Inverse folding.
């Protein structure tokens, strides 16, 4: 939670006005692309009304591959994804805090991770047909990116960031409660173990093993199709590796492998 509030202290309470995000045409000042009519209609249906600034939503839908193909400057959705991630964490944390009054911090963190992960966010993005409105560079494999969990998850978080900047926290919360928690079975969620990083920490603490340390051992692929390989070790001993399009997903895979190795080790309970 400390990490979450650190992000929010520099972002959520210094929200710029929506008119600072757009020029006189309603488009983002750093994005020279234009929003398509079908996307504008989709946004109206999604939000329930016309957004006050279409430019910020255009940026939210702009995949980073397009930046390399534009003669004119274009901003990708990476910064908005960073902001949306913080807003999403806050709203989900508050929701889980209210729904599980008897759960401790570790359990709440574990449940949040089951909701806020690449696979689940990509699923939420598909439910609202976000993939159909992604703006992708000509040199990129459009079909591959539209089906990419990483690209869809990033765009979904970027969309939340755009709603927050344009309409404020209350509207962003409404969106998240409708399109995220509205599709989650909280009771079932509470019984599913998924956050391998948290489980690995609990395992090492209970057995007085050195805490896990994660390092990125390699990065491969083009800028818009990165693949990260992460290794986790305890006390200097490598225990697992994972590869994914995002570092945190690679860390989860590495933690899963490490946990399996520790549980199979001689003397393990």
């Amino acid at each position: 939670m400390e990490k979450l509030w650190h992000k929010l202290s520099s972002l959520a309470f210094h929200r710029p006005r929506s008119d600072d995000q757009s020029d006189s045409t309603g488009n983002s000042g750093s994005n020279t692309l234009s929003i398509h009519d079908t996307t504008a209609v989709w946004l109206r249906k999604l939000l329930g009304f016309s957004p006050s600034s279409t430019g910020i939503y255009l940026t939210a839908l702009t995949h980073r591959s397009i930046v390399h193909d534009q003669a004119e400057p274009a901003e990708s959705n990476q910064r908005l994804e960073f902001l949306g991630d913080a807003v999403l964490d806050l709203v989900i944390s508050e929701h889980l805090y209210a729904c599980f009054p008897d759960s401790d911090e570790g359990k709440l963190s574990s449940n949040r991770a089951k909701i806020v992960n690449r696979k689940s966010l990509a699923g939420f993005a598909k439910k609202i047909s976000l993939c159909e409105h992604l703006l992708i560079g000509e040199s990129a494999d459009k079909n591959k990116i539209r089906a990419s969990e990483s690209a869809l998850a990033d765009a979904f978080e970027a969309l939340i960031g755009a709603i927050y900047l344009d309409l404020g926290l209350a509207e962003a919360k409404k969106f998240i409660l409708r399109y995220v928690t509205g599709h989650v079975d909280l009771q079932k969620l509470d019984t599913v173990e998924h956050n391998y990083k948290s489980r690995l920490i609990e395992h090492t603490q209970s057995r007085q093993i050195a805490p896990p340390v994660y390092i990125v051992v390699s990065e491969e692929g083009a800028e818009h199709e990165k693949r990260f390989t992460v290794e986790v070790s305890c006390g200097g001993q490598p225990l697992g590796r994972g590869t994914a399009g995002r570092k945190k997903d690679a860390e989860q895979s590495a933690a899963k492998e490490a946990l399996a190795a520790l549980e199979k080790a001689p003397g393990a309970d």
Strands lie at 212-220, 227-234, 237-244. Residues 24 and 179 are 31 Å apart (CA to CA). The two ends are 30 Å apart (CA to CA). Residues 2-189 form a domain with the Ribonuclease iii, N-terminal Endonuclease Domain; Chain A fold (CATH 1.10.1520.10).
